[in-house]
Amino acid sequence: MHPALTNLEVICTISSYTQRRSLPALASTCHAFKHPALNALWRDLQSVKPLVRCLPSHLFGGLRGVELREPLDDGMWDTLFKYTSRVHSITVPQSDVLEPLCLVMLSCPSAPASLFPNLRKLTWHAYGTRPAAEFLRMAFVPSLVELDIDISSPSSAFFSALSSLGKSCPHLQNMTVNVQNDFRTEDLMAEMSPFVTRPISQLHRLQILSVCGIRVQGMEHFVELRALQSLSLDLTTSSAWDTKSHLLFPGFHDLTLLNLSTGAVEQASNFLSSLQVVSSKEIKVDFIDGPYESIGSKSTAISQFFAVVQERCDNDKLEFVSLDGVYSEQAHIRRSVFAPLYACHNLTRLLITNVCDISMSDKELCQLATAWPKLQVLQIKCYTTDKTAVPTFHGLTSLLWRCPALTSLALVIDTTKLGGIDLKGPGGGRCNKHLEFLALGNSPIEVPVNVALIISGLFPNLKKVDLDCWDAYQTNSTAQQKSVRQQWKLVNSIIGGFSVVRERGIEA
Length: 508
Known about the structure:
Elements: H1 8-17, H2 23-27, H3 31-42, E1 44-45, H4 49-53, E2 60-61, E3 67-68, H5 74-84, E4 89-92, H6 99-106, E5 121-124, H7 130-139, E6 146-151, H8 156-162, H9 165-168, E7 174-179, H10 186-200, E8 208-212, H11 219-222, E9 230-234, E10 249-262, H12 265-273, E11 275-287, H13 295-312, E12 320-324, E13 328-334, E14 349-353, E15 356-359, H14 362-371, E16 377-381, H15 393-402, E17 408-410, E18 437-439, H16 448-458, H17 479-507
Parallel strand pairs: 1-4, 4-5, 5-6, 6-7, 7-8, 8-9, 9-10, 10-11, 11-12, 12-14, 13-15, 14-16, 16-17, 17-18
Antiparallel strand pairs: 2-3
Helix pairs in contact: 1-3, 6-7, 7-8, 8-10, 12-13, 14-15, 16-17
C-alpha cells in the first residue's frame, strides 16, 4: 500500500470526491477505505428509502409494504444503527413513503432519537401526515442545526411534533417553516402559529428564521431570540396585520436582515409599528398588492411605510432598503416619498421595483444623492408616462459626483434634453469606472449616437445598457415603443464599438 493511503485525511478526501455509485465498491476494496467510504455514502441522504433497503425485504408486506411482518433481531438493529449513525443530512421529498421506517421505529429497543446521533440538517418537502410526525420525533435530535420544512396538507399530529423543537433541538441555528400556497388558509395558519412560535423562544442559538402565517401574539416569542440575525416572515395569509396592533413589543436589536412578504404594503407598516425598535442592516418588503380605495391611497401607503421605517429602525445601522410590489401605472408618487430615509445616511443600497411611477426632477435627484453619499446600488425601476417628471443627464451627472461608489444604477431619465452637455467630456472631467449595471427603463431617446457618447463618457467601463425592461412591451408594444427599443439597441451597438476601440488603444 502506498504510504499516503495510511493517512486518514487523504483517504477521507479521496472518498469525498468519489462518485456516489462507486462508493460501495470503494468501501469493499480494503479495510482502510471501509469506514471513510461508508461515511461519504451515508452522509447526505436524498430520501429515506436507503434506510429501509438496508433491511431484509421479507420484514415488510401488505399494500405498498407498510406492514411489519416480524420484529428486527439484534443483528438487524446493529446494521441499521451502523448506517444511521453516519447520516448528517436527510432530504424527504414528496414521493417518499415513510410508513415502513416508522413501523421499524415503533419497535426500536432504545429511544428513537438515538438513531440519528449526528444528524445536522433535515429538509422536509413532503406531506404533514401522522407518519411524518412520527419521523420528525426521531429526527429532532440535539445535533440538529438546520431545519427546512415546506409542507403540504399538515395534520394536527405534525403540528404537535413541531412543538417539541425547543427542547429536542437546542442547538438549532437555521430554521424554515413554510406551508405550500395551495394549502394555506387563514384558519390553518391560526392553528399552526402557537405550535411554531412557542418552542422558538427556547432556541437560544437560532440565527436564521423564516416562517409563514405568524399571528401578532407570536411576536412576543420572536423578540426573545437574542442570537437572531435574519428574520423572514410571510404575512400574506394573515389578516392579523391588516390593522395596527394595540400591542407593542421590544423589537430586534441585532438583525442583519428583516424580510417581509405581505399582501399589501400597509401590513409591513403595521408590523414595524408593533415594534419599539428594529436594528437591522437590511429591510426587504415584497407585497402582492392589496385593495386600495383610491389611486392616491397606494401612494399614501408607500409614503407611510417609509415614514415608519425612519421612525422604528436604527437609522445609523440601516444600509439596504428594498420595496418590491405590483406595478400600477395609475399610482404616482414624488421623490419626497423618500425624504424620511434621508436620516439613514449610511444607506448603500436602495431598490424600488414594480411599485408605481415616481416623479423626480434633477434637483430632487441631487438632494437624494446628497443624503446618501455611500450609495453603491440605486435601482428605482419604473416607467415614464406623460404624467411622470424624470431627471436628465444633468441630474445623473450630479448623482455620480455625490455617489462615487455606485456600481449598479436603474433609473428612468429623459435623454432627449442634452443642452449644455459637452459630448467630449459629459461629466465635466469626472466619470465612474466602477459601474457594472445600468438600466434606464423606457427612457425617451432621440439621438442614439449622442446618448451613447454621453453614457460611454460617464461610464467608460460599461459594456451595455440593460434592456430587460423592454420585455414587458414585447406582446402589446406600440409602434412608438418598438422604435424606442430599436434606438436603445443601437446605443448598445455603439457603446460596444467604443469598447473595442478603447481595448485596441490599450493594446497599442
